[in-house]
Amino acid sequence: MSLAARIMRSIGLDHNPLRRTIDRVEAWITVALVVAFMVVVPATIWLTGRAAYSAGVHTEQVERAQRYRAEAVLLADPGSDTTADNPPAHRGAAPMRSGTSTGVRTSARWTGADGREHRGNVLADERARAGQWMPVWTDSRGDLTDPPQQRVQTYINAVAAAILAGVGAVGLAGVIHVLVHRALDVRRMAQWEAAWWQFEPRWTGRS
């Protein structure tokens, strides 16, 4: 038996006389789902990844235009009690997105893009000392914020979105196949029951 014949037999499209019409219908539906899977899943992955990448690049551009790098001077040694009287640390005070978010809350001051002096808590290395300068990112009002999104994060987000889309497409195809199989099973059982009631009297002699 050739490979093509074995494949046709495995999916139910051979010339087996015992196969019912409904079995062949299910086989053709399975073939259609496989073809759709081979076309739709790669397209879904590509389009989703491309859309996520474009959105990420747009985010980079917007954040570069709206966020400003500044130099903050530490007003106390990291971990000293002086930080207790300052406002809570702002989101993303010291670390870059691509770096770590560890550090000790430390009182600092900086000049924002608005030209005014600001004070708050930044995340500083525990080995830093009062008077030391460190880079921070601020918005147009001078408040601390995250640095602009980096291209590596855009790539990561795009890949993650593409993978999730692919998994979702595979899962959807699986659910459709299960639902179709169950619906056809119900139909098969109904046909079997109808055939039984038709031929059972002949075997048992009951009318």
TrEMBL record:
Residues 98-109 have a biased composition (Polar residues). The chain crosses the membrane at residues 27-47, 155-180. Keywords: Membrane, Transmembrane, Transmembrane helix. This is Transmembrane protein. Residues 78-116 are annotated as: Disordered.
